[in-house]
Structures are given as structure tokens and as C-alpha cells.
Design goal:
By secondary structure, this protein is an all-alpha fold. Helices cover about 95% and strands about 0% of the residues. The longest helix is centred in the middle third of the chain and has 99 residues. The chain is rod-shaped.
């Protein structure tokens, strides 16, 4: 083998090494992109699940708030009835006191 042939062989081996390195880099980038997509999909699924749970909790809170409002309205009506009863009692007591004075 002459010196020129040796130089050509070394050059070809170097070019082949660069090509292989480029292919390996490309494969690594593809794998990284696939992993990124997988991680993104997984993260999206987790967020979707959390959103679903938060919506369910929100609906439960709305239902509980509705029950509390109904109970509050009921208690307010009872208070009004009790106040009217006390006012009548006070009026009756006042009438009795006037009757006793007379």
C-alpha cells in the first residue's frame, strides 16, 4: 500500500466515523424528542385528572353552598316568626300591665 492509498483509507475511515457520529446524534435527538412527547402527554394526563377532580370538588361545594343557603333562608324565616311571637308577647304583656293599672 502506498502512502496515497493509506491517506485515502484514513480519510475514508474518518468520513465514515463522522457519518456514524452524525447518525448516532440524530438517533439520540429522535429518542429525546420521543421522551419529551411522552413526558408532555403524561403531564397533560395528570393535569386533566387534577382538573376533573377540582371540577368534582367545585360541584360538591356548590351543592353544599346551595344547601346552606336553603338552611339559612329557613332559619331566617324561623327568626322572623319568633320575633313576631316575641312582639306579640311583649304587646300582650304591655296590655296586661295597662289592664292591671286600670
Amino acid at each position: 500500500m502506498t502512502g496515497k492509498e493509506l491517506i485515502v483509507c484514513i480519510t475514508l475511515v474518518g468520513i465514515i466515523c463522522f457519518i456514524i457520529a452524525g447518525l448516532l446524534g440524530t438517533f439520540r435527538e429522535c429518542k429525546q424528542a420521543e421522551d419529551d412527547i411522552w413526558n408532555h402527554d403524561l403531564h397533560e394526563a395528570i393535569l386533566r385528572d387534577r382538573l376533573k377532580k377540582q371540577k368534582e370538588a367545585s360541584h360538591q361545594l356548590v351543592a353544599e353552598l346551595k344547601k346552606l343557603r336553603e338552611e339559612n333562608a329557613k332559619l331566617c324565616k324561623e327568626c322572623i316568626v319568633l320575633r313576631h311571637g316575641e312582639q306579640r308577647k311583649e304587646a300582650d304583656d304591655g296590655q296586661k300591665e295597662r289592664d292591671e293599672k286600670i
